[in-house]
Task: inverse folding
């Protein structure tokens, strides 16, 4: 029981237990568990990891509070556990995207100064908006006058004046941007948040440096290379901790799902997106997104709800337990390249049962289906990806296929004729273009021809042949032996047996 007393704005709490004993400290709150509503982490169904990943399962249990005894002989296991806590720890050789440092707490004077600056900025913005509104009114009247003068609609004039495209190609790295990046790294490295130089001051410093001295071609290339490396780290670098990785996944998946919904409105597509974590220690929440009633596909066709598919996908991904180096191994990249080439061939020809023929490629693929795999990397010998023996070569081919530079192309009649002439010239100089099949050992020997399946009497012959027992069965059949002498009462026994049967 709790009693409250006091005055003058003060309160005093007195707690009384069941025995009437009073105290100033509150009693302990009993733990309440609602089964089915608040499942603990241990209640999740175990993932069948197998004996090879039993240690990893023990590591996961240790991270969630389960006592785990480790002796001196398990130092390597402890090291592996420490190195598998985050995605960055599992990829030690990869560049890391450094997280942003939180700004320091501001004083009252700093807050007042920022409030004054904010008010001044709002006043300037208001004046700008009023000027823009006046300009738009004037532009509207001039647009209507142009439309009347040239006898066109107002919308047509607006489209010509303010037309833009939403599709932009990526630009090359400019020297100006590279110099600004280098100067920002030089002057802002090590400075606390809030005291770094703004972009206007950095650009002014760059302009002063250019007026002071002229850069050589080697220096310009070095600055551009450093900016390219910085941008590559921002795109392909690994997140430093699980919190940053989870936030990145959440924001990116939300943006992709929004784009899919917009694309559905624009083109009428159906799409389903699955995203799952790749390790049991990751804090990324597995999720899925679908447009319209795409989720019904999994129930109608695969007889499984989409939530079960996502759960099985998560289990499969956690069992893989691979970092970036293991995912990009020679064997995995061979499989990816082979699959990409085969899928592209099936897509361009429209044939599902077609197979890539690397040995007789010029005759069996190009001449037969009028398609060609163009822009194969020059440093990689053309052939089956399973015969490529270095990671650098298979990566070059993989990147070319992924970027779309190496792709399948439909040949025109002129291109096909030029290819045929090239193949003929190669054959004339003695090059083997088509591998001939091995000759049969009994070639030239007359053989008995089989009757066609639709010939009259064939079904009867086949049926009799199926019923006819094999010669080996006839030879191995054993006949029961008869006795040499019959007893005198053999006839009587036979008559008794016949009477019993009747």
Result:
């Amino acid at each position: 029981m709790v009693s409250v007393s006091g005055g003058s704005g003060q309160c005093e709490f007195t707690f009384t237990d069941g025995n009437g004993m009073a105290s100033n400290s509150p009693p302990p709150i009993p733990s309440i568990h609602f089964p089915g509503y608040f499942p603990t982490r241990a209640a999740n169904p175990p993932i069948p990891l197998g004996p090879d990943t039993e240690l990893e399962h023990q590591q996961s249990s240790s991270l969630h509070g389960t006592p785990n005894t480790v002796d001196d002989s398990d130092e390597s296991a402890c090291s592996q556990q420490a190195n598998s806590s985050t995605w960055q720890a599992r990829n030690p050789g990869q560049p890391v995207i450094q997280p942003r440092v939180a700004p320091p707490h501001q004083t009252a004077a700093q807050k007042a100064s920022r409030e004054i600056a904010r008010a001044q900025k709002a006043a300037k913005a208001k004046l700008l908006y009023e000027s823009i509104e006046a300009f738009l009114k004037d532009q509207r009247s001039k647009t209507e006058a142009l439309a009347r003068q040239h006898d066109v609609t107002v919308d047509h004039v607006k489209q010509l004046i303010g037309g833009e495209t939403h599709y932009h190609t990526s630009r090359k790295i400019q020297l100006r941007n590279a110099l600004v990046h280098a100067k920002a790294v030089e002057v802002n490295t090590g400075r606390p948040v809030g005291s770094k130089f703004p972009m206007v001051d950095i650009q002014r410093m760059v302009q002063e440096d250019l007026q002071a001295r002229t850069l050589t071609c080697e220096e310009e290339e070095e600055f551009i290379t450093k900016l390219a490396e910085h941008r590559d780290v921002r795109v392909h670098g690994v997140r430093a901790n699980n919190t940053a990785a989870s936030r990145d996944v959440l924001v990116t998946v939300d943006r992709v799902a929004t784009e899919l919904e917009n694309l559905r409105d624009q083109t009428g597509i159906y799409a389903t997106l699955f995203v799952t974590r790749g390790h049991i220690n990751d804090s990324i929440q597995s999720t899925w997104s679908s447009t319209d009633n795409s989720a019904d596909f999994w129930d109608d066709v695969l007889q499984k709800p989409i939530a079960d598919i996502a759960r099985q996908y998560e289990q499969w991904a956690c069992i893989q337990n691979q970092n970036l180096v293991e995912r990009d191994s020679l064997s995995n990249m061979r499989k990816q390249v082979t699959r990409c080439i085969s899928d592209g061939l099936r897509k361009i020809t429209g044939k599902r049962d077609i197979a890539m023929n690397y040995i007789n490629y010029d005759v069996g693929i190009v001449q037969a289906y009028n398609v060609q795999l163009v822009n194969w990397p020059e440093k990689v010998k053309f052939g089956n990806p399973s015969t490529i023996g270095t990671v650098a070569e298979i990566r070059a081919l993989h990147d070319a296929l992924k970027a779309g530079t190496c792709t399948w192309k439909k040949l025109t009649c002129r291109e096909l004729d030029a290819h045929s002439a090239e193949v003929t010239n190669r054959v004339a100089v003695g090059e083997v273009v088509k591998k001939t099949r091995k000759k049969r050992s009994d070639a030239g020997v007359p053989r008995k021809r089989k009757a066609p399946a639709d010939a009259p009497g064939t079904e009867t012959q086949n049926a009799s042949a199926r019923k006819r027992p094999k010669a080996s069965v006839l030879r191995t059949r054993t006949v029961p032996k008869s006795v040499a002498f019959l007893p005198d009462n053999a006839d009587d026994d036979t008559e008794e047996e016949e009477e019993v049967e009747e």
